[in-house]
Amino acid sequence: MSSSSYWPSMVDYQEALQFPRLAFTSSELREGTPVANQLGLPRPICGTFASVYELTRGRRRWAAKCFLRNTPDLHERYAKISAHLRKCRRLQYFVTFEYQEEGIRVRGKSFPLVKMEWVEGCQLNTFIAQNLSRPRLLAKLKKRWDRLLADLQAANIAHGDLQHGNILVRPNADLRLIDYDGMWVPTLEGEGSNETGHPDYQNPGRTQKDFHAGVDEFAGAVIQIAICALRLERSLWEKYDNGDNLLFRRQDFLSPRSSSLITDLQALGDREITEKLEFVVEACARRARASGGRAPRRKAAGVQKSKSGASTPASWLSDYVEDYGDSNSKGEARRGK
Fewer CB within 10 Å, N- or C-terminus of the chain? Predict the structure, then answer.
């Protein structure tokens, strides 16, 4: 990888991908054809830190993720993530990927990329928007989401940036997770995160020091609430969707008492929504008062009783006493990433 201060922009990558045989080191990508936009240029799927390009060769399809900034330890992180995921092959939520330290050449210099299997499906927010009139399908989606959170917890994995753009839904409501740059696995214990996630899904007090097994529980609960609420009241979508969220916005977390969304959610009178919403609001309040950056205090995993008396998986985040409240707080959500 180049050690100079130069780093490619999206336009640089677009130019390089016009000649895949010269750009890529992977034989499969060299022989692929980039999917083009209306101008005939390789079509980027743009994120904050990377551009993703789709390449095809016959029936085979790949995604080439090209980074827009230099993250020096990314190779080591991906090696640890890949090693842990190989131990969890039974999980179907992840796509096959390969981190290539010198995967693409731009202006005569080599840069890293991630080569991934291309997965058919639509983003979570798009799937929900298309199925607002099908509450049974949304109920099925909610069960699949609950199962995903429980499975990731059991596998000791945290995704790090659970949000609609990183969650693909297949037509049968099966779920796939993409974008593993910020993933936590046990061998990354003690390290910081390179990112803090989408602001409309994350506790606003989260910092790069908050990188641990339970870092997904807040975002996981936010998504649970949104799916539950939209199954009951589809008009919430028209009122609160902005094209880049699932009902919630960062301001709702910063000022929950003045949030019209939270007022509308409470008015639904649904027990699960109420409990998870109280968890989210309490987590924000505790996090705002905390000094931040302290290591979590864990309790043994197991089964707890909710206020209603139902058995639920023990919540990791409810054991993060300093920042998220005690284990008897109402809003106990399932841990996930």
Answer: N
Residues whose CB falls within 8 Å of the CB of residue 220, separated by 6 or more in sequence, listed in order: 145, 149, 162, 333, 334, 335, 336, 337
Angle between the N-to-C axes of helices 271-289 and 217-232, in degrees from 0 to 180, rounded to the nearest 10? 150
pTM: 0.82
Looking up tokens 């969650």 gives 167
Given the structure tokens 């987590």, which residue do they identify? 283
CATH of 10-117, one of 2.60.40, 3.30.160, 3.30.200, 3.40.50: 3.30.200
For residue 255, give the amino acid letter.
S
For the cut 80, the answer to whether the pLDDT of residue 162 exceeds it is yes
Domains 10-117 and 122-324 agree in fold:
no
Place of tokens 């780093």: 7
Q: How do the domains of the chain map onto residue ranges?
A: 10-117, 122-324
User: Which residue, among 265, 299, 305, 301, has the nearest Cα to 281 in the 3D structure?
Assistant: 265
Q: How many residues does the chain have?
A: 337
Q: Are 166 and 159 in contact (CB under 8 A)?
A: yes
Looking up tokens 């596998």 gives 155
| 1-33 pLDDT per residue, tens | 555 689 999 999 999 999 999 999 999 999 999
Q: How far apart are the first and last CA of the chain?
A: 31
CA distance 118 to 56: 9
Strand (E) positions, 235-336? 303-305, 311-313
Fold adopted by 122-324: Transferase(Phosphotransferase); domain 1 (1.10.510)
Residue 248's closest CA among 207, 199, 213, 211? 199
